[in-house]
Design goal:
Elements (H helix, E strand, L loop, with lengths): L11 E5 H16 L4 E5 L7 H8 L5 E4 L2 H10 L7 E3 L8 H7 L2 E4 L2 H13 L4 E8 L7 E2 L3 H13 L3 E7 L12 H18 L5 E3 L6 H5 L9 E4 L1 H5 L1 E2 L4 E2 L8 E14 L22 E7 L12 E2 L5 E5 L4 E4 L12 E5 L2 H9 L4 E5 L3
Parallel strand pairs: 1-19, 2-3, 2-10, 3-4, 4-5, 5-6, 6-7, 6-8, 8-9
Antiparallel strand pairs: 1-13, 11-12, 13-14, 13-18, 14-17, 15-18, 16-17
Helix pairs in contact: 4-5
């Protein structure tokens, strides 16, 4: 693959497609060695067309996203794809028709919603696959694991409905309750899967053992046998082991770089003058008097990013804050080395990566040589 680089105006995010390809290939290969297939989560980059095409050419098995709109976009980007699309967020009643239309499978836990999915699938003459979510302690989505009666009742309904398929069981960990995946909680999921297979006489081919937070078990050869699917997003785009809050060995953390342009550079006081009230966001901020500073304004604001969590490449500078459209930076001793029109670069965490791809005001520029 070779991309002709179209130079876009600032602000923009540079996407290193070579590093993304490396991360994805490495993760898929590592999981395959443990008989685990990968559903690539496309949410954080809003199913961006160029990145979707990269996924399509990879050995990843599924697409996964929490927004049906992104799954629709994937179908438009790669219309002949044979990779199934999984809706990650529990379908709301108003979204049931779209879930069935644009997703091959969805993660579900509410019986009434599953009933509605069956009705919608029947109208479209489709079979909608269900991954029934089980809560093993993190307390986000899923039927609580001790409620075996409800688990069985829900699974039985799916099996008996000709427009539905009990395709798998799934679990979510670390996202709300910060519960780390381990052999105990994943073992509970596996035990319930075996119980349902035996009781209902169905195969249940997928046992989805969570997200990027489960990868440390894979890399340590400690993932329980029988877990055969992971839903990977943050590890793909940022190389993160989300259970241990660190970058995984052999993965790139810098496949994305945010760049913004200096539109003003002035030598100004550090403390505002006059009677202070609230800022444009209703916040009352205390300002420390640090004397005069070289202060830069960048054409980037809260509408695009969360300023406080941006990490400048230039470690000499400090982010002061942001309004809707302006990012304020203390250039410190580096002040004399910058001028209006210069470009500053920033590392992105997961939240800011999601923001810049959601913002229509941040351009995307792709670089690849593979």
């Amino acid at each position: 693959m070779s991309l002709s680089v179209e130079v876009r105006p600032f602000p923009k995010v540079l996407v290193d497609m070579d590093k993304l390809k490396h991360n994805l290939d490495y993760l898929v290969d590592m999981c395959a060695q443990h008989d685990i297939n990968v559903a690539v989560v496309t949410k954080v980059f809003c199913a961006d067309r160029q990145i979707v095409k990269l996924i399509e050419d990879s050995a990843a098995t599924f697409y996964a996203d929490s927004r049906w709109e992104n799954l629709r976009n994937i179908a438009q980007t790669v219309p002949n794809s044979v990779k199934p699309k999984i809706l990650l967020r529990i379908a709301g009643k108003s979204q049931v028709p779209y879930a069935v239309q644009y997703a091959d499978a969805s993660l579900e836990s509410e019986l009434s919603t599953i009933m509605a999915l069956g009705e919608a699938a029947a109208k479209l003459h489709k079979i909608h696959k269900i991954i029934l979510m089980v809560d093993v302690g993190d307390l986000r989505e899923g039927i609580y694991y001790t409620n075996r009666e409800l688990i069985l009742k829900t699974a039985q309904f799916i099996v008996n409905n000709p427009a539905l398929e009990l395709w798998g069981l799934g679990v979510n960990l670390t996202c709300y309750g910060s519960v780390i995946p381990d052999n105990n909680n994943l073992g509970i999921l596996l035990e319930i899967a075996d119980w349902l297979r035996s009781t209902l006489k169905v195969p249940i081919p997928i046992v989805s053992g969570g997200n990027s937070s489960s990868l440390f078990l894979v890399s340590n050869n400690n993932i329980p046998s029988g877990i055969n699917n992971l839903r990977l997003g943050e590890s793909f785009v940022l190389g993160n082991d989300t259970a241990n809050c660190c970058v995984m060995p052999n993965l790139y953390a810098d496949a994305f770089c945010l760049q913004a342009e200096i539109v003003e550079l002035q030598f100004k006081p550090s403390k505002p003058e006059g009677t202070q009230g609230a800022n444009a966001f209703g916040e009352k901020v205390e300002y420390k008097d640090e004397g005069f500073q070289y202060r830069a304004i960048l054409a980037l604001g809260r509408q695009d990013v969360e300023a406080e969590s941006l990490i400048p490449y230039d470690q000499r500078v400090k982010i002061l804050g942001a309004s809707s459209d302006h990012l304020l930076i203390n250039l410190g001793e580096a002040g004399k080395s910058y001028k209006v029109g210069d470009v500053m670069s920033f590392h992105l965490n997961y939240g800011n990566l999601l923001r810049v791809f959601t913002s229509t005001y941040v351009n995307k520029e792709y670089r690849a040589h593979f």
